[in-house]
Amino acid sequence: MRNLKNITAAFAVLVVATLAMAGCVTTETSMHASRAKLYTDITEVIGESSAVVEIEVQSQEIVEDGTHTLSTATVISAFQPKGLAATLSSATPVAAADKIIVRQLGSSEQYGVPAPLLEIGNRYLLFLTPTTLEGDAGSQFYIVGGTAGLYTSESGNYVHVKTEDGDNLPATLTATELIG
């Protein structure tokens, strides 16, 4: 009988300790994604882009329960490089001063975001493709290849945002190289 009381008491302590520890656990959201294609030449990225633009990010909104970030940006320059939209039905007309929305997978509320998120106030060179989503999201853009089409704008040059994706793209580009 005494053994049964000791076992019952030990079990009760174990249950209480487990429940107490469960209350201390924090939940973090992580995101993982992979790409089916790696790029070995900038002409491939250009061919899959409907627009190539230098932008400045004005604002951001996290949507769909934190799974996507929408960056509203002003187009500083629009480029028409040779081969633009070669693999698409057509290029998307975009001009300087236009406002566009760039949709990225992930948000600042998550860790392990598959590609660096655009930041408010920063300038970027982006190779874009339409989302082809329904409704208002249909007018938004994705960055080609997640990071393949993502360059920062630095002192008149565009510097590729390096990641571990395995793309073999130019480390820098200039506006002259983007003129068709």
Write the layout of secondary structure elements.
Blueprint: H1 2-24, H2 42-47, E1 51-63, E2 68-79, E3 99-105, E4 123-130, E5 141-143, E6 150-154, E7 157-160, E8 172-174
Antiparallel strand pairs: 1-2, 1-4, 2-3, 4-5, 4-6, 6-7, 7-8
Keywords summarizing the entry:
8-stranded antiparallel β-sheet, alpha+beta, 180 residues, 16% helix, single chain
Q: What structural category do the secondary elements indicate?
A: alpha+beta
Number of helices: 2
Task: Let me know the number of strands.
Answer: 8
Q: SSE string, helix = H, strand = E?
A: HHEEEEEEEE
Largest sheet: 8 strands, antiparallel
Question: What is the molecular shape?
Answer: globular
Strand residue content: 25-35%
Query: How much helical structure, as a percent, in the residues?
Result: 10-25%
Which radius of gyration do the C-alpha atoms yield?
23 Å
Low-confidence stretches: 12-28, 30-34
| Overall pLDDT | 84
Distance between the termini: 90 Å
Task: Describe it.
This protein has 180 residues and is an alpha+beta fold. Strands 1, 2, 3, 4, 5, 6, 7 and 8 form an eight-stranded antiparallel β-sheet that branches. A hairpin with a 4-residue loop joins strand 1 and strand 2. The chain is globular and about 40 Å long. The relative contact order is 0.19.
Summarize the structure.
With 180 residues, the chain is an alpha+beta fold. It has two helices and eight strands.
